[in-house]
Amino acid sequence: MISRTSIYTSSKWNIPFVRRNIRHCQGHVSKSRMVCVAESGTQFFEAAKLTVDRYVKNGMVVGLGSGAASGIAIQHLGKRLKDGSLRDIVGIPSSTFSATEAAKAGVPLNNYEDGIQIDFAFNDADVMEEGSLMAVIGRRKLEGGESFVEEKMIAASADKFAFIVAEEQYTKKIYGSIPVVINCGNWLLTAEEIDDLFLGDAEVWRRPAFGNADPLGGDFPLVTTDGHHVLDVIFTSPILDLGKVAESIKNVAGVVDHGIIHDLPCFAVIASKNQVKLVDKTSVNS
């Protein structure tokens, strides 16, 4: 258990790193087969601001997400700390990106560990299914050998969790990449089993660290700091049952985790040009 009063700048993340602008999706050479996260953060400003202003209270431990919307929320959180309208906040970064943004914004950090009590967490979703609030994360380019697994652990540890998404990311039809973290040993057997599960509906590509992609991961396949590969299971038509896909992938030998969040109480803060909409599972089902 991490002491809630232990506040320090995390040494786990390479905080001095100045992030690059990510302009391309990973996992497939055909851009039409992938769905990218929104590149412009301006549409997220009001949604990110509302997320912090409404849900973050003094003394909270806050899980910090990754992506354009989360970056804006982290910046606004730092602004609130600097002007004194919030105090005694501890941030738990989920990635190099969120650690870097928090350090620049002046948000005190602590590392994630099993058993830590997180009062509230927020994160971007690459896409969210309208009605069910199931979401896909992990399509973004991963920095420094990280994976999206810690993002899922932080979300699951939070008492309250929010996704910040653009209106076009909140959709009834989800297709494109479902990222899957797998063990390196016998990775090809794992990939082939996943390919057999969705034969005709999806293609399975091993994600490269950089350079051109191909089904085997190119010349430089991505290896995370935990020694895992990342597959992109790329659905070329809308997924009929995202929860079933999640369970099917989870049961494949060699799979560590996948980018579907389907069994977690959460709510969505949806950004559009004219308004911000809040949706939770209660309002969806009512």
UniProtKB/TrEMBL annotation:
Catalysed reactions, semicolon-separated: aldehydo-D-ribose 5-phosphate = D-ribulose 5-phosphate
Record-linked InterPro entries: NagB/RpiA_transferase-like, Ribose-5P_isomerase, Ribose5P_isomerase_type_A
Entry-linked Pfam families: Rib_5-P_isom_A
Pathway: Carbohydrate degradation; pentose phosphate pathway; D-ribose 5-phosphate from D-ribulose 5-phosphate (non-oxidative stage): step 1/1
GO molecular function: ribose-5-phosphate isomerase activity
Keywords: Isomerase
One of the GO BP terms on file: pentose-phosphate shunt, non-oxidative branch
EC number: 5.3.1.6
Superkingdom per UniProt: Eukaryota
Enzyme class of the recorded protein, top EC level: isomerase
PANTHER family xrefs: RIBOSE-5-PHOSPHATE ISOMERASE 3, CHLOROPLASTIC-RELATED, RIBOSE-5-PHOSPHATE ISOMERASE 4, CHLOROPLASTIC-RELATED
Family of this protein: Belongs to the ribose 5-phosphate isomerase family.
Protein name (record): ribose-5-phosphate isomerase
